[in-house]
Amino acid sequence: xxxxxxxxxxLGVFIDGSNLWHCQKRNGWLIDFRxxxxxxARRGEVEGLYYFTPDAPHLQRFLRELDKIGYNIIKKxxxxxxxxxxxxxxxxxxxxxxxxxxxxxxxxxxxxxxxxILVSGDSDFEVVIKMLANKGKNVVVICNKSSLSVxxxxxxxQFIYLHKIKREIKYKKSQAxxxxxxxxx
Length: 185
Fold this sequence. Notes:
Blueprint: H1 3-6, E1 10-16, H2 17-27, H3 33-41, E2 45-55, H4 60-68, E3 72-77, E4 79-83, E5 91-95, H5 99-108, E6 115-119, H6 126-134, E7 138-143, H7 150-155, E8 158-161, H8 166-169
Parallel strand pairs: 1-2, 1-6, 2-3, 6-7, 7-8
Antiparallel strand pairs: 4-5
């Protein structure tokens, strides 16, 4: 692709939904996913926009809204893990980790994009980022400063902290958007 002709990089955006939700909770503000998509589009041509999430009943309305505005939803059932501790009743922990699926999709699309945007600070992605770097791909990591692992800090080309782009991507309830654009609305 000749960037002088259309000046647009082909972007692949890979969002770790669970990681991003925890970032939002720590920040105390929510992301407007339409604005987030527009933020990505200012960097180049968004050719792949993926949101990885557990398939939980409380997320269905949110995921339908994401789908309507152009996100590709990658989900798998939540796992129910029994926790047994002596002297306490059995409890359950719910988990829906999609790191492997995310890494595999990035790896299989290595030639499809010029720039890979990873919305997660999880160190598990270091190996895939190194693979992208070996192929000369630009990798941008977006997350909270406190969530950015040392491994991703070292291996990515650029990192963007959520608080730095808050004005551009923050969700405001007063806006005339359809409800359901936050996971727990």
